[in-house]
Structures are given as structure tokens and as C-alpha cells.
From TrEMBL, chains A, B:
<dbReference type="InterPro" id="IPR014709">
    <property type="entry name" value="Glutathione_synthase_C_euk"/>
</dbReference>
<dbReference type="InterPro" id="IPR005615">
    <property type="entry name" value="Glutathione_synthase"/>
</dbReference>
<dbReference type="GO" id="GO:0005829">
    <property type="term" value="C:cytosol"/>
</dbReference>
<dbReference type="InterPro" id="IPR014049">
    <property type="entry name" value="Glutathione_synthase_N_euk"/>
</dbReference>
<feature type="domain" description="Glutathione synthase substrate-binding">
    <location>
        <begin position="284"/>
        <end position="384"/>
    </location>
</feature>
<dbReference type="InterPro" id="IPR016185">
    <property type="entry name" value="PreATP-grasp_dom_sf"/>
</dbReference>
<dbReference type="GO" id="GO:0043295">
    <property type="term" value="F:glutathione binding"/>
</dbReference>
<dbReference type="Pfam" id="PF03199">
    <property type="entry name" value="GSH_synthase"/>
</dbReference>
<dbReference type="InterPro" id="IPR037013">
    <property type="entry name" value="GSH-S_sub-bd_sf"/>
</dbReference>
<dbReference type="InterPro" id="IPR004887">
    <property type="entry name" value="GSH_synth_subst-bd"/>
</dbReference>
<dbReference type="GO" id="GO:0005524">
    <property type="term" value="F:ATP binding"/>
</dbReference>
<dbReference type="Pfam" id="PF03917">
    <property type="entry name" value="GSH_synth_ATP"/>
</dbReference>
<protein>
    <recommendedName>
        <fullName>Glutathione synthase substrate-binding domain-containing protein</fullName>
    </recommendedName>
</protein>
<dbReference type="GO" id="GO:0004363">
    <property type="term" value="F:glutathione synthase activity"/>
</dbReference>
């Protein structure tokens, strides 16, 4: 039918700073492994996690929740139970039809890019969200491992965010080559100057993993600390899979009961509601900072709907430019937008240079950061999510600076893939020789896609002696 | 935003045979009273009702259910509690936004006519269904009255359907002027010739009412015995209204608890599932007979989804032409379509001449009627739903032929509006003199709109001495 089915995955802009080791046999989904935009059976290894730290009221309590997307299968050694590509065509056709109907009736939707207003107005120009038709078997032990890692990573993000010097020092070189990170660091510095404290800190993170088939290791690709998408639609995909397997599981040899529960949306909403209660003004709203056009609006609307229905908390959708125009700081630091006091600033935008086309957007970001509203994320949490920090944390003895529990540290380290900066000429040489073993990852969030070394190697050799900035710009112009 | 908000109403083709008395002050929704396709606050008085009669197993049991669409307000004398058109514009804007989001997340959708494939493929080209933003206050006593009438009308339809002579005699004149009804009567005659019995009879009806403000009477407009639409989406509108009033009811002076429960979809599905069980073959399916292009497919998909999820009953969607191509009758009368035995034929098409563009569709209709599958409706039930039969039943002493309970008869008669054929020259004269007091209704179901006498009066005077056929054709050409 010409429609495309693929898992929702989080992709990033075409700029690079770090290298991430991965193997071509990794079973996790990579878009470029499916060049034909038609049928795909695959799976995304993503862990949504929530993290709320309240310093003033309960100094030592971490209200970490963790929620998961994915379907598990016991044991590492078992391969997929069925040959997905051998499924009877008539059966696939029926499943596709049922899945399309299910998506329509249950709000698994996005705006259709061919309809102009679909990113502006809800209820018009809707099309089913892209999804994998069936869950991909995934070892239960690794799934449990990812589940266990979530609160430890949350704790780590929080601890690192409090070490301003570590952040500034680690990103000092990045600052010189990346104007965007430089602006973020400037805001961070300003907050340090005014001695701004965030007593209530809220993180809604998503950690992405790949399963390395050769070493049988679960390796972290990245941790998203800003604007982690698909908590709303992701759990619907689990429901869809469960429903399909209820009807067709017997023919496929798949058991719907093995599809794990995925409460991403309710957990995100619980964390937001908990933070809202801590802010302690029943009339205050949650400010959802959004793009001027957002075709993924229904993923966000699910959270707003659950907040309203389950917790009677209202959300206010505004773009950065609108916040610049409407937003005001009261003398006590209270943020007021559209005449309403803001309890939480929840970013679903702001992670990429394209989100700040003018000074207006930067003014809005600074205004919100200066306020006493809870930021999700704060500028510090945002900076912790950069690849450069991920790389620093992977260095020997760095985790020990932030975490006390040796077991926790060992667990984190076990899932770290090798991470190298392009400063390291030995590793760059190795990458040029064996491009299939590496993936190039950008420094920051958001955008179009990963940059696969195997296709970049020619360009890379030609620019390897130039500066990093040059290298990045070279690619951006392509 | 340029989108249109209106209640889902059932409208009919532009052909005429009967006159129905109504008053211009009637509070029920009439599309032509809202010429501007923008904002509308109104309400549809429709009663969905289900009727399953099983003759062989339980001869005297009527498994009638009745479900309602609408919102009530106690007492007849109270006017609307708020001036809908005086609501603050900002509040309306918020409610519209929330309603559009709610519709998208909860499957209150139709195919967008501007997207070519939206009537063919689910999950593409979707737009929110048209809906009224708020419920219209409606007297509880009349709502209860309609609720009480449902099983009596069901009983009446069933009794009349069994009187073949009454049907043939009553429609004998119609047969001469209406080729479509003539074809239906031919099938009916053929069934009489082969002495075809329908031991299990299933009716999924919708009765439409208008509230006459002058006489304070609830008057029946028509009873739909074939392809009654919006059981799926209709109850979502009640949920939408309840949700909106939960959030905005206080500002509007409306209480969400006063929006009555509307279980139309589940009741329809329960009746279908009950009939399916009576058919007694766990492998048999329900054949959903559909249009080749159906933008109202989600209304139907809700029923299929509830049948599958709640009762593990599968539906098969086929057009009349496809049934002609694929359908087979086994020697014992079993209907097989696409290799699957059919327990129930559920028509969501077949009510209008346009649904039968060739002999192929008529062959399919005959094939299904000859089968031992349960028809919803049978040809007899279909014929009972014509306006001519409605008119006959309104004549003195006719109801008494079919019903025994005098109270039931009185209840039905109380809701009958005056009905006249165009044969009656006195009433035609009166209608020409006072067009605002009459509405012209077509003989059969489906199509575009009612024909309001006030705008038809000029045409009418010019053709009044011609035959009915001429009269109808004259209008069809306009």
C-alpha cells in the first residue's frame, strides 16, 4: 500500500564529535539496514525513564521510575523463533490491515507531512504512526539489565549535573567548535554567576541500547536528557503488538503474554504530576515547550490528556518565540506565560540549533532557566546528555567521582561502548581501516540521522587533518 | 480553523413519497437551519436499538436492547440552561482544541474526502468526525419515552416483517413508481415462492425523533432498519461531551454527570455476538457488507474491533460486487464468502439505488437472502423500514393488527407524526399553503438530504398534477 512501517527511533543531526563502537551484527534496529521503505520487522531497544529529585523537601529521596519499550524472550542463546520474512503473505496483509485499523482507533497517529496544517492543528491530516508490525524477540536478561540500569543512570545524571566545573571543563573544547553547545554553556555560566539553585529537579530520559551479537553485551548508544520522544506512542505500539499476537500469535508461534507491559506514558505523567505537586500551586500549569510545527503532536497530546484526566493538571503549549513574547518573570522568580503561573517547563524542543532561529528563542530559554519553575530538563541536565560528557564518563575513574556504590558503577561500565573523540588519531586510523566496526555520533541531540562510518570513510580521510569544526561543516554542507 | 462541527445525523436521498408533519419550532437538529458551515451547538435525537428474535430455539423471547444517544435535562418546561452563543470566545477556542485532540486520540474519525485513498485504506487521510461541541439540553421525560419506545418498535418491525401480504399490498403502488423498491419486493416475492423462513432474525435499528416545541410531543421521524450508522462514533461523542464538561462544565453551568451513558456500540456488538452464537459455528464469520469507498469506515471498525476483542468473533468486509464474485451457496444453504462460512450478513450498504450500479450487486443481495445466514436486515425487515409502511402503520386500526398490548399501541401512536402520501390532494394543498409545517421525506433510506417543503413549494405546484414518478424525477434532475 505504499505506506512505510518502521519502529519509532530517535535520530540525531548530522554533526559529529564522538565515535561509538558497534558491530555490524548488532541486532538493534538501524534504519540504513532497511533501504527499502516498505515492510520492516524490527524493534527498538529504548528505555524510557523518569527521574525526579527534590532537594529542599526530601534531600535524599530519588523518585526514579523506569519504564520500558520492548519485547523479551528468555535466554541469550535462542535466535528468533520465526523467520519473519517467511510469513504467509495473506496473513501479513491481514495483520497490516488490522494494525492500521487499531492505530486509527487508538490514537497511534502522527500528522501527515503531505497535509499542510497537520503539524499545526490537531484532528486534521492524520496518518498512522510508523510502527513495526511485530515485536522482535529480545533476550529477557538484557531487557532486565536495561531496566536495572535506568535508576542508576538517573542518579548519575543528577550527580553530574551538580558538578558545574566538571561540565564546563569537559565541554571546554566542544565550546570552541560548536556554537550551539557554546550558547548552552553560556546560560549555564550565567546561572552559576547568580548562584541559581534547582531544588526540585525533574528528568524524563530515554536510554537507547544496541545488543551486540558477538560479545552478547547490551551497549548504550546514548542517553536522552532533553525532549525524549515517543513515551505516548511507544506504549501504544506494545499494546498493538499484544493485540496482534492475541489474534495471530498461534499462527506465528508467538505468545502475546511475552510482550512486556510498557507504561512509559503513565510513568512520565506520574513524574510530571509528582513534580507539579512539589511545586505546590494548584493553579499553576505545565508549560509544554513545542515546535511551531509538530507532526509528532499526538505523542505529546497523550501526556497532556493523561495529566488532565488522571491528575487534573493543565498543560499550556507554547513555542520558544511565543514564550519570549508572552513570558514574564515576577520579582520572586515566578514564571508567568499567557497569564498563567508555570510550575514545570517541559521541553519537547530546544535540543538543536534549528530550534533557535533567532535571538528570541535564546531569550526564552534564558528566561525560563532564570525562573523558579521546575525545568525538565535544566540547563545542567541538558548538558549532561551530550556525547562529550558520555565519553568523559566512560574514562577510567570518572564514574567513581559521582557514584559510591561499586556494583552500580560496574553495571554502568558494563554497558559502555567504546567512545572516542576524533582527537585520537590512532582510533581514527582504525576506524578508516574498519569502518563497519564504528558508528559516528553527533555531539548533541535532534535532527536527521546517524552518520555511518562505512559511508563516510572517504570524506573522512580527506578532512582528517583539518579541524573538527571544518570536518563538521564539510558534512553539513553536503 | 475552517473545520465544521456538527452532530452526526442520518440523512436521506432526494426522492419523495410521504409527507411528515413537523413544526418549524421543533428543537431537534435540522441541517438546513444552520446554513453557515462553521460552529454549531446542537444535538441529535436518535435512539439506537437492537433486536434479535430467535424463533426456532426460543420462540417467545425478544432479546431487545435499547441504547441511546443524547443528553437529558429534567422537566419539559426548562429552557436551555445557558446561551450557547454567549460563551466566551477564548473558552470556546480552548474547548475546540481539546475536543479535536480528544477525537484524534480516541478514534472519533472519518476519512478526509480530500485524500483519495481515505475511503479505501484505514490509517491514512484521517480527520476528526464532525461533532457538536456541547450537548443540547433535552427533556429527560422525552428521552425516557424514546427509550421505552425502542423495544415496542422492535416488536412491531418483527411482527410486520412476518406479514408478507401486508408488505406486498402496502407497497403495491410504490412498486409501480419506484424501481428500487420494486427490486426489493421481487426478492421478497422470490423468498415467498421458495417458502424461505428466517428462524433467527436480527435487527439493528435507529429511530430518529424530533421534539415538537409547540405540542411538547416527541415525534418519530423515521425508523432505520438497514445500515443504521454511527453506533460506533455516536457513543464517543457522548464520552467527548462528558470529558469536556468535566473540565469546562463549571464555567458553562453544565454538569457532566447529566450526560447519559451511551452504550450504542457495545449493545450493537452484543446483539451481533448473540446472533452469532445462535448460528452455532465457532468458525463462521460476520460478513460486513460495505461500500467500495467508505469514509465512515471507523464507525464500522469500532464494531469489528469490539466483536473481536470482546467476543472473539471475526468480521469479513466485502462489497456487494465482491460477494457476487466470491460468494457461494452450499446445497444446505450455507453462505461461503472468501472461503469462510458466514453466520451473519450485516449490511452497511444496500439501502439506495446507487449501491446497486449493476446486476452484480442485485445477484449478491439475492444470493445472501437465499442463504441460511442471519441477515441484518432480512429483505422483510428492510421493507418494513420504508416510509410507505410507516405511513400505513399510522392509519387507524393498523397497529392493532400487529400488537396486542393496548398500552404499547398508545405509546407508539403518541409519537406518530402525521404522514400523508402525495395522493391526498387536500393535504398537498395544505402543504402548499403552509410549507413551513411540513417536511417531505423520501420513501427509502440513504443519500443526501431531506427535502424541505418551504423551498420545494414552487416546484411542487408545477408538478402536482403529474404522476409521482414524474415528480420524483423532476427533483432528482435538479
Amino acid at each position: 500500500m505504499g505506506t512505510s512501517y518502521s519502529s519509532c527511533y530517535h535520530s540525531t543531526t548530522l554533526s559529529t564529535h564522538s565515535l561509538l563502537l558497534s558491530h555490524p551484527k548488532a541486532s538493534a534496529f538501524h534504519p540504513s539496514r532497511f533501504p527499502n521503505p516498505s515492510f520492516k520487522f524490527h524493534f527498538t531497544n529504548q528505555i524510557h525513564q523518569t527521574h525526579l529529585r527534590i532537594m529542599s523537601q526530601k534531600p535524599s529521596q530519588v523518585l526514579g521510575g523506569k519504564v520500558e519499550v520492548g519485547e523479551t524472550q528468555e535466554g541469550v542463546s535462542k535466535g528468533p523463533m520465526i523467520d519473519f520474512h517467511g510469513i504467509d503473505e495473506g496473513l501479513v496483509e491481514k495483520m497490516v490491515y488490522d494494525a492500521l485499523v487499531w492505530s486509527s482507533l487508538h490514537g497511534l497517529l502522527v500528522g501527515d507531512k503531505s497535509v499542510q496544517r497537520s503539524g499545526k492543528v490537531p484532528g486534521v491530516g492524520m496518518v498512522h504512526a510508523p510502527f513495526a508490525l511485530l515485536p522482535m524477540p529480545f533476550p529477557e536478561c538484557h531487557w532486565k539489565q536495561a531496566y536495572e540500569l535506568a535508576p542508576i543512570f538517573n542518579e548519575l545524571v543528577d550527580r553530574v549535573s551538580l558538578d558545574a566545573k566538571f561540565l564546563q571543563d569537559s565541554l571546554s573544547r566542544t565550546k570552541k567548535v560548536d556554537a550551539f553547545t557554546c550558547r548552552l554553556l553560556d546560560i549555564h555560566s550565567k546561572m552559576l554567576e547568580i548562584n541559581k539553585k534547582e531544588d526540585i529537579r525533574l528528568g524524563l530520559h530515554r536510554s537507547d541500547y544496541m545488543l551486540d551479537e558477538e560479545t552478547k553485551l547490551l551497549l548504550q548508544i546514548e542517553m536522552n536528557t532533553i525532549s525524549a520522544s515517543f513515551p505516548g506512542l511507544g506504549c501504544l505500539v506494545s499494546d498493538l503488538h499484544r493485540g496482534l499476537l492475541n489474534h495471530y500469535g498461534e499462527s506465528l508461534g508467538l505468545d502475546s503474554k511475552r510482550v512486556p507491559n510498557n507504561p512509559a506514558a503513565t510513568k512520565f505523567v506520574e513524574a510530571l504530576a509528582k513534580a507539579w505537586i512539589e511545586y505546590n500551586n494548584p493553579r499553576a500549569v505545565i508549560l509544554l515547550v513545542v515546535q511551531p510545527e509538530e507532526r509528532n503532536m499526538y505523542d505529546q497530546h497523550w501526556l497532556s490528556a493523561l495529566l488532565k484526566e488522571g491528575h487534573n493538571v493543565s498543560t499550556l503549549r507554547r513555542t520558544l518565540a511565543e514564550i519570549d513574547a508572552e513570558g514574564k518573570l515576577q520579582p520572586d522568580g515566578t514564571l508567568v506565560v499567557g497569564g498563567q503561573e508555570v510550575a514545570i517547563v517541559y521541553f519537547r524542543v530546544g535540543y538543536a540549533p534549528i530550534n533557535y532561529p533567532s535571538e528570541s528563542e535564546w531569550r526564552a530559554r534564558l528566561l525560563m532557566e532564570q525562573s523558579s519553575a521546575i525545568k525538565c530538563p535544566s540547563i545542567s541536565y541538558h548538558l549532561v546528555g551530550t556525547k562529550k560528557i558520555q565519553q568523559e564518563l566512560a574514562k577510567p575513574n570518572v564514574l567513581e567521582r559521582f557514584l559510591d556504590d561499586k556494583e552500580d558503577i560496574a553495571k554502568l561500565r558494563k554497558c559502555f561502548a567504546g567512545l572516542w573523540s576524533l582527537d585520537d588519531s590512532d582510533i581514527v586510523k582504525k576506524a578508516i581501516e574498519s569502518p563497519g566496526l564504528f558508528v559516528m555520533k553527533p555531539q548533541r541531540e535532534g535532527g536527521v540521522k546517524w552518520f555511518k562510518l562505512c559511508s563516510a570513510v572517504v570524506v573522512m580521510t580527506s578532512v582528517i587533518n583539518e579541524s573538527l569544526l571544518h570536518f563538521r561543516e564539510q558534512h553539513l554542507r553536503q
